[in-house]
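Worked example 4.2. Below are the chains of a multi-component assembly; read each line carefully before continuing.
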Amino acid sequence: MSLQDELYKETILDHYHCPRNHGVISGATLKQEGTNPLCGDELTLYIKLNNDTIEDIKIEAKGCSISMASSSMMTEAIIGQKIKNAQIIAHNFKDMMLNKGNDYVFNETNEDLNSLNGVKKYPVRIKCALLAWNTLLQSLEKDEAKAQGE
Amino acid sequence: MLDVKKIKRDFPILNHYIDGKPLVYLDNAATTQKPKVVIDAISNFYENYNANIHRGIHTLSQKATIAYEETRLNVQKFINAKSYQEIIFTRNTTESINLVAYSWARHNLKAGDEILLSQMEHHANLIPWYELAKEKQITLKYIPLTNDFRLDLSNIDNLLTPQTKLVSLTLMSNVLGTINDLTSIIQKAHALGALVLIDAAQAIAHMPIDVQKLNCDFLAFSFHKILGPTGVGVLWGRQKLLTDMPPFLTGGNMIASVYTDRATFNELPYKFEAGTPDIANVIASNEALNYLNAIGYADIMAHEKCLTAYALDILVKQENIILYGPNNTINRGSVISFNLNQIHPHDLGQVINDSGIAVRAGHHCCQPLMRQFNITGTIRASLYIYNDEADIDILAKTLQSAYKVMGHVVTR
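Applying the procedure described above to all two chains together yields the following structure tokens:
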């Protein structure tokens, strides 16, 4: 398999060209911006919470195929999830991307995420794949901190 | 004309394969490859006469000192400086510019003074001035660009004012390939009493530099852009200016006499060379100069002009290509930036890499310039003496496959 076949798999290209849950939620519970200043990837994450459930999520993003595809896949993976579960999925994804020896495989529900495993071989692109997920975790942490403060 | 086939053989790295494809190295604006003579000079030093310089009485130290100073004398000739004392070795162009910012500018500029830069500067010629401007309430002004990616000098007489104390400009853009004719700006700056610093990091690889003819006051470049090792930069400055400037870094080697509470400083250029320098790489840099001198800039320039013309001709024919730089070879070097519409430069860079081609993808340390074009980056193919038309053909062929790889439906 050539490098580009591995990196630009059909699943990734599909999410890149037709990003899921792209857009804005007016009256979102959480709104968080994320950037990779060095490569110019930018996104704004909108989350609508219903108690501790992520009822809706949308992302407005601009960037390379990897960052666009990863954010699109993320929205599909965490929409409808409890916050705790979303955090677990995010940490599993980060583990998969950051640990060389980690061969974490997502189950059928989130199997699209496995397509990003190949990005690991390109260290400079890992941060593209992580942008949406780091932004999500940041946003949920802020929400938790706020809840504890109340 | 250059015998490119013969030149290629002098560069061991060009025999490498990237995933089974022969390496096509088109990232020369970032750093050039090194000929075997340069690589050998480094191991020769460590194997045969490694010693510290300027102090030991022993044979090895004397040999090392002579070789180190030999490079300085050769640099003096290379840029036609009046004296070896005007040649200061630094780590790189960035450090050379910082030396001027910390030593000359911090002691000579005051609130209300102005520094004139341009919109095509590398971060190395921006950030030192941002920091100084913040600290000293100095105003930074910028020469804008024309639509054909050159300095727009139509308003230069208003940009230069009696408050202008320094004009700091690149001689050749590392993104656009534009070569700037700075003659009139330097004249005008001097007439107002301002000094002129030239960032020659790119230019040095592509054209002969004569500091006396340029009539600038400081000039900075690095050896790794002209076939030399990394870790060696040069700052040239007028002797009078350098003499009056306080040291930048302090410590060993830059002193004359040291007491328990004070020190007197060494003479030029050693006043600005604190600590043990990168001796091996300075010595090997001399081999890079000898190698370039043996080829000669006349042939280098002729080769680059032909190759750039060939590349521009082929690239403009690619579908959906957007070029960032002059579309002809007049006052233009062999650095070519472009994008394919709708493909992120990092994706395109990856596709190009898959053909064994090394190009740079990104902002090229010129974020303000990228912002001006409203893009996050470009692909930059930069050509040098070991590149030929076949390299350009491989690049063009790869570009033709990019939309397919990225899954775009190409509409015509």
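Take a moment to check your reading of the output against the notes. Chain B has two domains: 4-26+296-405, 39-293. The interface with chain A takes residues 19, 344, 346-347, 350-351, 353-354, 362-363, 370, 375-377, 405-408 of chain B (CB under 8 Å).
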